[in-house]
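Q&A log
Question type: sequence-to-structure
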Amino acid sequence: MSNLLSNLGLCRRAGKLEAGFDSVKQAVVNRLALLILYTEDLSDKTKKEILFLAGKYQIEAVLVPLTMDQVAQMLRKKIGVFAITDQGFVTMLKKSLANLSDDQPQSEQSN
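Response status: OK
Response body:
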């Protein structure tokens, strides 16, 4: 989990992360967004709008196993939706997410 947060932070510092619904929407409409990430506690209405935009512009939208509070520790703001605008960061974040999902079943089995 911390690897995913640190990679998001790196992406933000590089200026390749759009955060918040309005910024993400603008990046999608301007065809800058390559990947949309949203937190598990995002409101149903916002999630519906993000998934609609992602489908309309054919951009992958991925649920990340984070809450807005966890993201707030990194960004100092409660934000639930992000757009990644660089292919290198997209690849890195997808690897982080894949590692999380690989670790998930193992930790559930050990309980």
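Response note: Helices lie at 2-13, 21-29, 44-56, 68-75, 87-110.
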